[in-house]
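User: Please predict the structure of the protein below. I'd like the answer in structure-token form so I can feed it into my own downstream comparison script.

Assistant: Understood. Taking the following sequence of 392 residues as input:
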Amino acid sequence: MKNKISAYILTEEFSTSEVLKLYCGEFDLLEPVVCSDERDAYSKISESPDSVLIVDFSDNRAQKTDLISKVCSKYPQCTIVALSDNPSVNLIVEVMRAGAKEFLPVPVIKNEFTDCINKILANSGKSAVKNKCKIISVFSNKGGIGKTSLATNLALELAKITKENIALIDLNFQTGDITTFLDLKPSFNISYMLENIDKINETFLLSTLERYKRTSLYVLADPPYFKQADNIKPSQITKLFDTLKDTFSYIIVDVEASFEGKNIAALDNSDVILLVTVANLPALRNTQRCLELFDKLGYDSDKTKIVVNRYMENDEIKEDDVKKVLSKDVFWKIPNNYFAIMNAINKGIPVSEINTSTNVAQSYRELAKFMSDNLYKRNLEQRYENILNNLQ
């Protein structure tokens, strides 16, 4: 007989506690345990980290947010399920960011709870339940726009905010700069990964990819020799992404500024394309050509997001002018701060580690929050849509 998994229940509502015990009791592998308060819950988890913590946020929100942050940091193998009788988007984003992996409304619907626990049990051999991976490609068909800075800083900020495993891939096969921007000297690169793709698993990836300092950001570098890139096929890029999806919550791709097959494969497989430009006519015309090509490739218009880099409010070309030229809204503006960016590049560290309060560092951080929040919101909207469909 398999060992049971403790399901620690923390709620002030007796009725919620009783319902959860009843639901948990229908699973052979779950052992429901009611906790008296946050301290009791943390103590029990410390004795049995491979467990499930079910927390009701209907009351004592701040204390419980602190609890799951501590549990997530100290005992990442504990999977956290959050509940609330007022499941606002802001609350869901807050608790997800703190470390919860699932969120359910109160009163708890049995089918929703069953689906949630089945997902957790199916992944009980792993440290946590993983959200669906999101692939974000950063692209421009013009060099010198700042896409590598965007990709690098966005990836690091996502790692800090979500605390999930983030992969940063350098697809600039001839002149990749990510390792320079982060001052890394990786032992393995993308060519090695592609040659050994059938042997790759989560343990291999997390031990082989270069980890940035003590964060959850893992870097897959470009090939050190030009000739290695010649043998890389588009189908291999697709297979690489499919393999990485099982381990990483986000994959950030710095795509080479060309329309070669390998790069098109990366864009095809992306959930979002951050199309980077600056506010001058040559760059905007290039961006316009990109949008035309993306349309021919059949990309949904919402897949491509316009990011204006080095933006200044007093520039001759304003945001409305960019929108008019491209016939598309500007998704994000990154302010111009030449000295902060160049200082970071020359020192081989992200801009937030130079000065976290600079306007450009704040912009990268807010972009990462916005994109991670949107993922939570879409998951929430889909979940509620499924609930409504089940009730009809």
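That's the full token string. The chain has two domains: 5-129, 134-378.
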